[in-house]
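Weekly sync, protein design subgroup
Attendees: M.S., D.O., the rotation student, P.L. (late)

Item 1: inverse folding check
M.S. brought a backbone from last month's batch and wanted to see whether the design step gives back something sensible before we order anything. D.O. pointed out we never logged the input encoding, so this time it goes straight into the notes. Structure tokens as presented (404 positions):
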């Protein structure tokens, strides 16, 4: 089957280190190639006015943190074609004057024509067309459906545009031309159904972990005697909505004797502020900023950690939670986020109100007072949950949700 994928975010060879680009679409494409499908990815990247790129890095970081976006580096102005793991990807930058605004009809029509030309040159006629993220996929999918007369689907990772009142009519108009709606979490699916007055709730599109990591050192090992006692971990971009500050405060309140360790893996706009908070809380010996780590390094850290905490605001499904569960970590995730329905509170992890340091402190006390047997049971349940999220399994389920 020929699968055409449109996405706003896709890892590229000229990305800056730890730019925050999620690789989820790349993982799906890679698995479908393994299954014998042909894939072309169109990366509709954003390109902003050049003046924006002249701003000091410190100011750009504040923009990124506040808006929850990533301003691409200058190199991403360029169109490129790349081939990785058999997946052909074309990056076609689209100019946007203001972040969080939709693309103009002129830009969308121009992009459509460029996509058609690429497919003609590649002699590629899609059997199904998939979109990830709202804008410009919501506009482009119906246009491509009319051109090729094939089934279309979109998966929404967040609701940047649909939640804005000014764009509700825009979204309702275009989704009529899309056959299947998907979302990256139960919470997003429920919101989309309500906001767009859909008859049917979107299917949930989870992602997974490379099958090889289930045979990797540390998988299935829930032996807490091998983990560092009272060890905690965060992995992700250091932006405001991740609520790393709330975790620091809750840990300080829970551990009066400061007999704990908290490792923070990642970089971002909030790092300086968080380091200042660490000093003001007198936790310099407890909280370590480890910077960027690759996937293998992260999994090794997880295997040595008891508890993984990420209680972000508006968190969609996060692969890092599943990775932590696969290494036997007790995971604390956000309520009403992407892990609702996957984590069952007190069974295979815990759910905490987004950013609520007081509720997090209570959960930490519960975990601290557990016996080794109780902790082991949660860890084993977490590992069994993670087994359902192999890349090969989730990629197959994804296509089944669209084709059936």
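Designed sequence read out in the meeting:
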């Amino acid at each position: 089957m020929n699968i055409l994928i449109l996405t706003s975010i896709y890892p590229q060879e000229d990305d800056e280190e730890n730019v925050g680009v999620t690789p989820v679409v790349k993982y799906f494409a890679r698995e479908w190639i393994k299954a014998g499908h042909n894939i072309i990815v169109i990366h509709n990247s954003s390109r902003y006015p050049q003046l924006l790129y002249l701003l000091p890095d410190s100011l750009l970081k504040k923009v990124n943190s506040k808006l929850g976006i990533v301003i691409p580096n200058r190199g991403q102005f360029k169109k490129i074609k790349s081939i990785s793991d058999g997946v052909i990807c074309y990056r076609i930058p689209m100019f946007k004057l203001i972040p969080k605004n939709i693309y103009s009809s002129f830009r969308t029509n121009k992009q459509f024509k460029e996509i058609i030309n690429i497919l003609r040159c590649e002699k590629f006629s899609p059997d199904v067309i998939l979109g990830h993220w709202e804008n410009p996929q919501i506009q482009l999918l119906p246009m491509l459906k009319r051109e090729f007369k094939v089934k279309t689907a979109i998966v929404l990772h967040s609701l940047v545009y649909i939640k804005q009142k000014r764009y509700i009519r825009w979204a309702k108009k275009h989704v009529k031309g899309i056959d299947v709606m998907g979302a990256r979490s139960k919470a997003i699916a429920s919101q989309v159904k309500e906001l767009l007055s859909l008859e049917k709730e979107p299917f949930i599109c989870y992602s997974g972990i490379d099958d090889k990591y289930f045979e990797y050192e540390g998988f299935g090992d829930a032996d807490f005697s091998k983990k560092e006692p009272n060890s905690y971990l965060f992995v992700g971009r250091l932006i405001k909505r991740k609520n790393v500050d709330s975790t620091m405060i809750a840990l300080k309140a829970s551990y009066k004797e400061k007999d704990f360790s908290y490792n923070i893996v990642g970089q971002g706009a909030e790092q300086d502020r968080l380091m200042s908070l660490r000093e003001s809380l007198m936790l310099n010996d407890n909280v370590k900023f480890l910077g960027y780590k690759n996937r293998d390094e992260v999994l090794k850290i997880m295997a040595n950690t008891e508890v993984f905490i990420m209680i972000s605001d508006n968190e969609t499904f996060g692969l890092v939670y599943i990775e932590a569960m696969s290494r036997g970590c007790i995971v604390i995730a956000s309520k009403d986020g992407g892990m609702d329905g996957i984590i069952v509170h007190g069974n295979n992890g815990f759910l905490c109100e987004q950013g609520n340091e007081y509720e997090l402190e209570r959960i930490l006390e519960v975990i601290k007072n557990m016996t080794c047997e109780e902790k082991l049971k949660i860890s084993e349940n977490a590992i069994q949950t993670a087994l359902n999220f192999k890349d090969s399994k989730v990629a197959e389920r994804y296509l089944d949700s669209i084709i059936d």
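Discussion: The mean pLDDT is 90. The first helix runs from residue 24 to 34.
Action: P.L. to compare against the previous round before Friday.
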